[in-house]
Write a structure and sequence with these properties.
The complex is a heterodimer of chains A (349) and B (165).
Chain A: H1 2-14, H2 18-30, H3 39-43, H4 47-55, H5 71-84, H6 89-92, H7 94-101, H8 106-122, H9 124-129, H10 131-136, H11 140-162, H12 187-209, H13 219-247, H14 255-267, H15 283-299, H16 302-307, H17 313-322, H18 329-348
Helix pairs in contact in A: 2-4, 5-7, 8-11, 13-18, 14-15, 17-18
Chain B: H1 2-8, H2 15-36, H3 45-68, H4 73-88, H5 96-112, H6 119-126, H7 135-164
Classes of the chains: A mainly alpha (349), B mainly alpha (165).
Subcellular location (chain B): Nucleus
GO molecular function (chain B): protein dimerization activity; transcription cis-regulatory region binding
Protein name (chain B): IBH1-like N-terminal domain-containing protein
């Protein structure tokens, strides 16, 4: 598609002899025609007729009553592809006839596009479950070819709406991917585009997870933020383990009470994305849970944050100014706790 | 105790409960082992504390990896690393073949990149098992890893607070 749109304005400017251009175009066409990814290769027009079609929008009154020399080939192809298109069999017969008549008027162009869109919508289902295509070739290749052709059809029909230059009438009903106008129709770029979209989706997910990433635009900076966040979380785990190591010798905790407290904090936690609340079946624990319920509802993470501020007050306040997290208070408290721990470690040592 | 464990490890409880129960049990185990080897080792406080810190840290990561299970690539890589560590320390000597295979693929991936580490490479180093992941999978694993790290931090925080109080 870029091929044609690129060469179109050039031809108009120069206004060269069609034969001379034909040779250039033949060169252009020769290369991509192997993988049948170019527009004119698809049409299987000889270069001259392609050029004439191109020139028809420059004002020549030449009504291209060209019969496509490979009309039968086109019809065959359309017929093959319309086999899958079982639901719209009524429409498929006028479709090839339209392609053979190849009138360049707007009305037909619009109709083609309409047919194409309905057929696309209708035949999405049969496409997926159709065995004939899959049996013949690996799935990627025919689907990518279909995608290419669909894109060419879309682009061509849009183009023919604006300028009645040439007409691509091959009605391929189903394609999964729709490329926008002006985009490359290479199979490679298709795969790349799909891959890029997957990556962008995941980046959006990550942006939501990491606090403060919503405002940043640009993949690189977001990745930097993500890396910083992971590193800070890992450092936090290390600090907490140091703290637990310091506590360990002098502890005689009751595992049952701790587990009960954990379950209490789990059920009533203000950690929104974590855990589904559920019933703790043991009666004894229920009693404990009520105690901890009140405790944790008010304090859950605020009490440790604010209760020990006297230790490392000077550490917290400069860091709090940097905290621009608009997500839950947890992350803010996490970082202030981290600093408190640094202060505490210094005290211990 | 066994009943609590089975209840806590039911999937509906969520990862937080599973991690909490495993971590607490491993802490208990560590404390008991520490007490066994001499309750008052006050002569080498610094080194002992460091060792204890590392043990607690490893226990935390192990508990998290087991709580996640082999469902995620990074948890599988973590479990594998831990098993290797245990193997080196002479705990068990099984699964030599698996380790050989993994080592080969990892070396291959590392040898190719001889340029300045891009952001994706840095991320690969941070996330366990990130070497053998393509970018798309890496981002997904990072998201899950961040979520699990956050749970780990909150649970450890609450344990530490309750212990100190």
């Amino acid at each position: 598609m870029d091929l044609i749109t690129g060469s179109g304005p050039e031809l108009d400017e120069t206004g060269l002899d069609s034969l001379q251009l034909g040779e250039d175009i033949r060169h252009l066409i020769a290369a991509p025609s192997e993988n049948a990814s170019s527009f004119t290769a698809l049409l299987e027009l000889p270069a001259n007729q392609a050029v004439e079609l191109l020139h028809s929008d420059s004002g020549r009154k030449q009504r291209p009553n060209l019969t496509f020399p490979s009309n039968t080939a086109l019809l065959e192809r359309a017929a093959i592809f319309s086999v899958f298109h079982s639901s719209n069999s009524a429409d498929s017969s006028p479709v090839p006839s339209n392609s053979s008549s190849k009138n360049l008027e707007k009305g037909s162009a619009v109709k083609c596009e309409q047919l194409e869109t309905e057929s696309y919508l209708d035949s999405c289902q049969p496409l997926v479950s159709d065995p004939t295509v899959d049996n013949s070739a690996p799935n990627a290749r025919p689907s990518s070819k279909r995608k290419e052709r669909e894109k060419k059809v879309k682009a061509a029909s849009k183009k023919s709406k604006s300028e009645s230059s040439q007409q691509e009438e091959e009605k391929l009903p189903y394609v999964h991917v729709r490329a926008r106008r002006g985009q490359a129709t290479d199979s490679h770029s298709l795969a790349e585009r799909a891959r890029r979209e997957k990556i962008n989706q995941r980046m959006k997910l990550l942006q939501e997870l990491v606090p403060g990433c919503n405002k940043i635009s640009g993949t690189a900076l977001v990745l930097d933020e993500i890396i910083n966040h992971v590193q800070s979380l890992q450092r936090h785990v290390e600090f907490l383990s140091m703290r637990l190591a310091a506590v360990n010798p002098g502890m005689d905790f009751n595992v049952d009470s701790l587990l009960a407290a954990e379950s209490g904090s789990l059920i009533d936690s203000n950690f929104p994305n974590m855990v589904m609340p559920l019933m703790w079946p043991e009666a004894q624990v229920n009693g404990n849970r009520h105690q901890f319920q009140q405790h944790w509802q008010f304090d859950s993470l605020q009490q440790p944050v604010w209760g020990r501020e006297e230790d490392s007050h000077n550490f917290i306040t400069p860091e709090n100014s940097h905290l621009s997290y608009d997500s839950s208070a947890n992350s803010a408290s996490l970082h202030s706790n981290q600093l408190k721990m640094e202060g505490r470690m210094k005290l211990h040592q | 105790m066994a009943s609590k464990h089975t209840i806590a490890t039911r999937h509906a409880q969520g990862i937080r409960a599973r991690f909490a129960s495993r971590f607490l049990r491993s802490l208990l185990r560590l404390r008991r082992s520490g007490n066994r080897f001499g309750g008052s080792q006050s002569n080498d406080e610094g080194i002992g504390k460091r060792i204890r810190t590392d043990r607690i840290k490893i226990a935390a990561y192990a508990a998290m990896a087991r709580a996640v299970g082999p469902r995620r690539t990074w948890s599988r890589a973590l479990l594998f690393k831990l098993r290797n560590r245990a193997r080196i320390h002479g705990v068990s000597r099984k699964r030599c073949l698996v380790s050989e295979k993994k080592r080969v693929t990892r070396n291959k991936v590392v040898a190719i990149s001889s340029r300045e580490p891009s952001r994706a490479d840095t991320l690969r180093k941070l996330v366990p098992g990130g070497d053998s992941m393509d970018t798309c999978v890496l981002l997904e694993e990072t998201a899950h890893y961040i979520k699990c790290l956050a749970t780990q931090v909150t649970v450890m925080q609450s344990i530490a607070d309750r212990l100190l109080l």
